[in-house]
Amino acid sequence: MWSKTALKFAEIYAYILEDSYQNAQAVRKKILEQVAGLNKDPKRYNPDKLRLDNNEGFRAFEVYKFRVTFYVDEENKIVNILRVRSTKQEPLTY
């Protein structure tokens, strides 16, 4: 499940598309493949190291200099995509 915050992904795609259709497609494809795999094994990625409270439900991975942050709701068996951002941006601690 993608949150409203994760809709930034569409903006990232559009930004890359301005320069290169091939690169935009490659980034989009790789991120979507990684996200699709979260349903099978969401814990294959480490807990989010930028998280202040070390809650292991929050996890993250990087693809092509983009960081995808997500939350694993074990009780309801749901993975929520919270944020997609460039790793060049100043990291948010939360």
Question: Any key phrases for this structure?
Answer:
94 residues, alpha+beta, 3-stranded antiparallel sheet, 2 helices, 24% strand
Plain-language structure description:
It is globular and about 40 Å long. The mean pLDDT is 86. With 94 residues, it is α+β, with helices and mostly antiparallel strands. The protein is built from 2 helices and 3 strands; from the N terminus they run H-H-E-E-E. The protein has a 3-stranded antiparallel sheet.
The SS-based structural class is: alpha+beta
The main β sheet shows up as: 3 strands, antiparallel
Taking the alpha carbons of the first and last residues, their distance comes to: 21 Å
Number of strands: 3
Rounded mean pLDDT is: 86
Q: Please state roughly what percent of the residues sit in beta strands, choosing from under 5%, 5-15%, 15-25%, 25-35%, 35-45% or over 45%.
A: 15-25%
- Pick out the low-confidence regions: none
Order of helices and strands: HHEEE
Radius of gyration: 13 Å
- Total of DSSP H or I helical runs spanning 4+ residues: 2
Question: Helix proportion of residues, in percent?
Answer: 25-40%
Strand order of the largest sheet: 1-2-3
Note the overall shape. Answer: globular
